[in-house]
Amino acid sequence: MKSYRKELVFNTNTRRKIINITGDVQRAVTESGVQEGLVLVNAMHITASVFINDDESGLHHDYEVWLEKLAPEKPYAQYRHNGYEDNADAHLKRQVMGRESVVAITGGRLDFGTWERIFYYEFDGKRPKRVLIKIIGA
User: Fold this and answer.
1) Average pLDDT value for residue range 107-129
2) Model pTM above 0.70
3) Cα 122 to Cα 129: distance, rounded to the nearest angstrom
C-alpha cells in the first residue's frame, strides 16, 4: 500500500471565497501513483471547509446567502467568541459545511458522480491557509 501527502496553500484576497480544487487534487492523485484507493482532502484551519458539490455559480451564491442567514458576520458584538478576533461567524459556517471530503480513486482518477467537484471554502481569509491531501492505496 502506498501513502502520499501534499499540502495546498491558499491566501484569498477576500474574507470568503469558494475555490474549485478538483484539478489540484487530481494532480496529487496522479503524482502519488495510486490507481485504487482513497483520497482525503481537509482544511487544516477551523475557519475553512472542504466540500463536494456542483460547480455552479448560482449554487455558490446560494451558499453565501444561506450561511450568512445562519451565522451573519456582523454585528461582531453578537458573538461571545469575538473579542480578540472577529471571526466567530467563520467558525460556525465551517461547522455547517464540514471539515473534509473523501473520494474514491479508481483507475488513477477521482471516482465522481456526474457533477461532483471538490471545493475549498474560505470563511476568514486574507492570510495563508493550508489544505491537506492524503492519499492511500495501491
Assistant:
1) 97
2) yes
3) 9
